Structure formats: C-alpha cells, structure tokens
C-alpha cells in the first residue's frame, strides 16, 4: 500500500512564476525542499508530454527520495517516469481530469492519488471506492494562478469542508503565511502554496518561514 | 501483436472545424466512416483529460469495431479507455510528446503507435527499436490546423521522405483530393485529412470521394 504523505507544506510549481524570479522550476523546488517543503506537485499545464516528462524525471531525481513528488494531471507522465525508474510518488487530479477510479486501476496500489475538491458533493465522491489518498480543498483566497478557480472560500469555508471528509485535506489557493495557524486549527493537514514560494525572493527562506508558521511557531 | 492498419483514408478530428459546420465530432466521424474512412485519430488539444476520455469512449463505441480508433498524444486516455473496455486501437504521438520507446512499454504489444515525422533523422529514429507501427509525414501543404506545423513539403517532398523508411507512411497536412493520386504513386500508404472532411458540407460524401480518389478512381 501507499506510504503516508506529509501534507504540511505542499509546494505546487508554476514555471512562469519561477521564471519571473529568474529561477528554473528545479532551482525553486530544491530550495523549497531545503527550506522545509514536505511534498512537491509538478504542474505544467499547456506543456507537451515530452517536456513535462523530462522535467518530472529531472526534479524527481533531485528531490524524490527526500519528499514525495506528485505529477499534476498527466497519469501517462507519472507512468512513464516510474517506468524509467524515477522516484515519483503519485498523481494529483482535478475534477475535469481522468476519473480517480480508473486512474487507480492504471497506476496500481503503490502510488498516491490526490483530488481537488471544492464542494461537499465532490468530497463525498472523493471518499467513494477508497481510491483517493488526500483531497486538495480550495480556493482559500481568490488567486490568479488558476484562471478557472472559484472565488475564495476563506479559511473558515475550507475548514468547514475539511470537516466533512475523513480523507487528509490540504488547503490550496492564494494562501498567505498568516493563514496557516487558522488552517491548522480548522483541521487541515497542510497548506499547498504556489506563489508564496514560486514568487518569493528567496524560496528556501519562504519555505522555512511557512513551515515554521505551520508547525506552530507563527509568522516571524 | 498488432493487427495491420489500413491507412488509406485516415481522418484526424478537429472539434472546432466540426462545430463550425454545425456538427459534433461524433457525427462527423460516423459520417466519414460510413463514407469510407479507414481509420480515425481523435485529437483534442487543450481539452481536459476527463472530457477527452468521454469523447474517446463515445466515438470508439460507435465506430471502433469497424475501423481503428487512435488517440492523439494522451497515452493515459488510451489506457483509461481500454481499461473501461472501449475498442481503441492505439495512440498517435508527435515529436514533442512522450517517447515512443516508453509508450510501448506502457501500452504493451497489442496497441498501435503512430509517430509524426518531418525529417530524415526523425524517420530513422522512428524505425529504431521496432516500437512504431506507422509514421505520419508532413506537412504536405501549409495548413492552419496546426499553428506550429512546418511549411509545406509538397507531394514530392513527402514522397521522398516516405521512400526513406520501411514503415508504413501516411501523408498529412493540408491535403486536397487532387493530391491523392500523386501521394499514392509516391509510395504513401494513405492520406490523413482534417479539414477535407471536418469542414466539408457533407462529410460522408467527402470521405467517399476521397476514398475513391485514393483507390484510383481519381477525383470526380
């Protein structure tokens, strides 16, 4: 079966944001893991499969034995990376991606599946069949990372949704460091961040401060 | 091993073109197969995996036992459709998609792999390892279907490339009915068309005339 996943500080990559700070995605991920990120989701919407696979192989080799590396959406990229021996942990699916039940049959019992959910019905569906390992609940605050994301649910809204599911839940969407104590108090198992690390001046330092805030030290 | 594939009249779908004629992709494919299309590649760049899988399932159920249904790019969609019992025949890959050698390991020996190739080096690579079942050579004529396609090679240029490979070759890219006799004489095993069917007033009739032209009757 799957190993447990520490969702505490879950980095979701955004290549354009990293590039706007003069860094590669790989550099950003390495710095964030050094700083304390506990897992990494590689996301490359609009990128061809070959380029995405190359990035997944490269970054998984760099950090995949330290923290779980999760592939966004492209189950075939996960399968190809695994076939080539890279330490990839699983796949994260959105509501409009391939269905969780079929993906579980394709990737077997050893790999993780995360699912984005934003409503009680989606959370109930995520629990069905036992195929899903965690849910990503959001958006916490309105964000520009995903143009099709719903308006922000707020810390309280995300917490209320998290209370509806027995699955480990990570909050996502426009999360700032000041949100972390509230999210943890509301029962979330972690916070997923994009711009708080990818757009940070120093992603290692940003990850360290976010992790500290999550662990209870509070923002500096 | 894989069954042989009749590449003679190879329809590649374009949803926007079908819609511009007031038809669904499914309606267009059914009409084209009724008219004589010998295989169908479903292409849905920019569509989410879930929607693309639904389309593949729907169209494969409708025509997949009459002609081979090939999935463009998304190996995971092929695998999911197969897992769900749909009669899908294989996948078509571009040069920037997942590598053929890895895809063969993921999909096994029963499914077809086609690869787009536009240069002698790409054709040589396609033959390596024996994983590829056919190549798509183009662009024959400059086309607006793919904005990143190279300038047209012409019938002679495509024929010269086809002569370099032992793999079955289908020409693609801006092909009109008058090109078919020349392409066949140049050693191609078939012609892949998009707009000649998707934008046709009557896709069944268009397919029938294209097939007749390919078989040697020449254009009406």
UniProtKB/TrEMBL annotation, chains A, B:
It is an enzyme of class 2 (transferase). Gene3D superfamilies: Aldolase class I (3.20.20.70). 4-amino-2-methyl-5-(diphosphooxymethyl)pyrimidine binds at residues 41-45, 72, 116, 146. It holds the Pfam family TMP-TENI. Residues 9-197 form the Thiamine phosphate synthase/TenI domain. Keywords: Magnesium, Metal-binding, Thiamine biosynthesis, Transferase. It catalyses: 2-[(2R,5Z)-2-carboxy-4-methylthiazol-5(2H)-ylidene]ethyl phosphate + 4-amino-2-methyl-5-(diphosphooxymethyl)pyrimidine + 2 H(+) = thiamine phosphate + CO2 + diphosphate; 2-(2-carboxy-4-methylthiazol-5-yl)ethyl phosphate + 4-amino-2-methyl-5-(diphosphooxymethyl)pyrimidine + 2 H(+) = thiamine phosphate + CO2 + diphosphate; 4-methyl-5-(2-phosphooxyethyl)-thiazole + 4-amino-2-methyl-5-(diphosphooxymethyl)pyrimidine + H(+) = thiamine phosphate + diphosphate. SUPFAM superfamilies: Thiamin phosphate synthase. Pathway: Cofactor biosynthesis; thiamine diphosphate biosynthesis; thiamine phosphate from 4-amino-2-methyl-5-diphosphomethylpyrimidine and 4-methyl-5-(2-phosphoethyl)-thiazole: step 1/1. 2-[(2R,5Z)-2-carboxy-4-methylthiazol-5(2H)-ylidene]ethyl phosphate binds at residues 143-145, 174, 194-195. The keyword Transferase applies. Its EC number is 2.5.1.3. It comes from the Bacteria. Mg(2+) binds at residues 73, 97. InterPro entries: Aldolase_TIM, ThiamineP_synth_sf, ThiamineP_synth_TenI, TMP_synthase. Condenses 4-methyl-5-(beta-hydroxyethyl)thiazole monophosphate (THZ-P) and 2-methyl-4-amino-5-hydroxymethyl pyrimidine pyrophosphate (HMP-PP) to form thiamine monophosphate (TMP). PANTHER family: THIAMINE-PHOSPHATE PYROPHOSPHORYLASE, THIAMINE-PHOSPHATE SYNTHASE. This is Thiamine-phosphate synthase. It comes from Actinomyces denticolens. The gene is thiE.
């Amino acid at each position: 079966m799957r190993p447990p996943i520490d969702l505490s500080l879950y980095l979701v990559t955004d290549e354009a944001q990293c590039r706007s700070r003069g860094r590669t995605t790989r550099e950003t991920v390495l710095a964030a893991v050094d700083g304390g990120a506990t897992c990494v989701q590689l996301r490359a919407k609009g990128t061809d499969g070959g380029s995405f696979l190359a990035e997944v192989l490269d970054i998984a080799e760099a950090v995949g034995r330290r923290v779980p590396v999760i592939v966004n959406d492209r189950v075939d990229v996960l399968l190809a990376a695994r076939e080539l021996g890279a330490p990839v942990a699983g796949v994260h699916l959105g509501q409009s991606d391939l269905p969780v039940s079929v993906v579980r049959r394709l990737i077997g019992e050893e790999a993780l599946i995360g699912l984005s959910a934003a409503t009680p019905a989606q959370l109930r569906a995520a629990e069905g069949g036992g195929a899903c390992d965690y849910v990503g609940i959001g958006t916490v605050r309105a964000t520009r990372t995903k143009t099709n994301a719903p308006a922000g649910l707020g810390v309280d809204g995300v917490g209320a949704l998290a209370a509806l599911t027995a699955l480990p839940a990570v909050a996502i969407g426009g999360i700032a460091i000041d949100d972390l104590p509230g999210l943890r108090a509301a029962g979330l198992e972690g916070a997923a961040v994009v711009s708080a690390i990818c757009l940070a001046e120093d992603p290692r330092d940003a990850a360290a401060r976010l992790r500290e805030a999550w662990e209870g030290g509070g923002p500096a």
